[in-house]
Amino acid sequence: MVLVTMVCFAQETKMAQDTLVAQQTPALKFGYLSYEAVMHAMPDYAKMQEDMAQLQKYYEAEMTRVENDFNIKYEEFLDGQASFPKTILQKRQSELQEMLDKNIAFKKESQQMLKKAKDDAVKDLYKVIDAAVETIAQKRGMALVIDTDKESVTFINPIMGEDITEDVKALLVR
After folding, report:
1. Residue 13 and residue 4: Cα distance in Å, rounded?
2. Is residue 68 within 8 Å of 74, Cβ to Cβ?
3. What DSSP string describes 87-143?
4. How many angstroms separate the CA atoms of 128 and 146, rounded?
5. How many CB atoms lie within 10 A of CB 139?
6. How do residues 98-147 score in pLDDT, each as one tens digit?
7. Residues 6+ apart with CB under 8 A from 38
8. Gap between the Cα atoms of 38 and 31, Å rounded
9. Residue 152 confidence (pLDDT)
10. How deeply is 148 buried, as exposed, middle or buried, from its count of CB atoms within 10 A (0-12, 13-18, 19+)?
11. What residues are paired with 142 via a beta bridge?
């Protein structure tokens, strides 16, 4: 009987200690936000979009120019094809093929350059957002902040976490 009483007392003591530890441990605070929503609200995002549209226009204008140059050369080739000696015909064909290859390479390169320019600009905007998120999270004592745009979070209990999207927007859109 004494043994049973001691076991019960030990269990009660353990439960009391666990409750005390749980009461002393601060609750984990976290925040969440939509990076996309914040980025789209930033004035710098609108500027980036304008810059990207302008850069794309430059590349498209250059592509149109080189296509027109190629078409003119190709028409000249077709017009004189019957009268050209074989060596000149081969030379012109190789020139046209070289122009075509360069045009294709330029088109691929321009697409890569546009993508890189956009990626770099977005990366810079994310750095600004990261700094704002850190500022707000530090002020509110948050342990972490989750980006809800990545679809890796299926559920966030709004009682346990705090949506800081509007606060970050407010900090960045002053």
Report:
1. 14
2. no
3. HHHHHHHHHHHHHHHHHHHHHHHHHHHHHHHHHHHHHHHHHHHHHHHHHHHHHTT-S
4. 16
5. 9
6. 999 999 999 999 999 999 999 999 999 999 999 999 999 999 999 999 99
7. 129, 132, 165, 168, 169, 172
8. 14
9. 77
10. middle
11. none
Cβ–Cβ under 8 Å, residues 28 and 143: yes
Residue length of the chain = 174
* Assigned token pair, 7: 């076991």
Between CA 57 and CA 62 the distance in angstroms is: 9
**Tokens 């409750």, residue?**
19
Query: How many CB atoms sit inside 10 A of residue 66's CB?
Result: 16
Tokens of 123: 């990366």
- Looking at this protein, which amino acid is placed at residue 13? T
Tokens for 59? Answer: 């590349």
Q: What is the pLDDT of residues 65-97, one digit of tens each?
A: 999 999 999 999 999 888 989 999 999 999 999
Return the pLDDT at 151.
76
Name the strand (E) or helix (H) holding 83: none
